């Protein structure tokens, strides 16, 4: 068992290989929906039914998807390294179903619901829909356990702490152009190995020296794992 701590930051690209639509790419979810209507606190306040319909569909799609090779390969890192932490911008549970045991969901989790009044009242709903009139234990309407545009990201401080203590940093399937998640790499210790897996060139490569695996997540993670173990 190697003593290093690995922190992996993942985005939509890793879930896309399991058939889940990305948001920003051509043909992605945002091209089909108005962000402000379905993924903002303002949209929820104006038309909660529309927001619920959107996330009920996404929840069913995510439940039907299966972890791909990249999810499973990242889980295998736990067999070789002292600690492996996944920080994901994704709201599906494919990392967990792929075998990873320490996952931080920056933007919430589709398979959970919470009170719209008390954000500490959270529970698992699996792939079940949320309907208007469904109540939390405090009597408030249930809403998706998702961090919407216009809301704070409550787990950012925890994510910063994890990156600060990383001995190896890996970025997969995200451009890291959207804040506050984009600021995560700035908290890494100087001089540590940093890997990025992305089939395209990325602005990260213009910031610092990264080891770039110009591959899709599924094949790139395997190559990176071989490099790390060597």
Provide a quick synopsis of the model.
With 230 residues, this protein is an alpha/beta fold. The protein has helices at 12-16, 29-32, 35-38, 41-46, 48-64, 69-76, 94-98, 156-164, 217-229, and strands at residues 2-10, 81-88, 103-105, 108-115, 122-124, 142-146, 168-172, 194-197, 211-213.
Protein architecture, described:
The protein is of the alpha/beta class and 230 residues long. It has nine helices and nine strands. The chain has a six-stranded parallel β-sheet with strand order 3-2-1-7-8-9, with helices on both faces. Helix 6 packs parallel to helix 9 (217-229). It starts with a strand and ends with a helix.
What are the defining features of this structure?
alpha/beta, 6-stranded parallel beta sheet, 3-stranded antiparallel beta sheet, 9 helices, 31% helix, 21% strand, elongated
Classify the helix fraction into a percent range.
25-40%
- Strand fraction equals 15-25%
- Quaternary state, please? single chain
Distance between the termini: 13 Å
Low-pLDDT sequence parts? none
Strand neighbour order, sheet with most strands: 3-2-1-7-8-9
Shape: elongated
Major beta-sheet overview: 6 strands, parallel
- Please tell me the overall pLDDT: 89
Query: How large is the radius of gyration?
Result: 18 Å
Order of helices and strands: EHHHHHHEHEEEEHEEEH
What is the count of DSSP helices, taking H or I runs of 4+ residues? 9
Question: What is the total tally of β strands?
Answer: 9
Structural class: alpha/beta
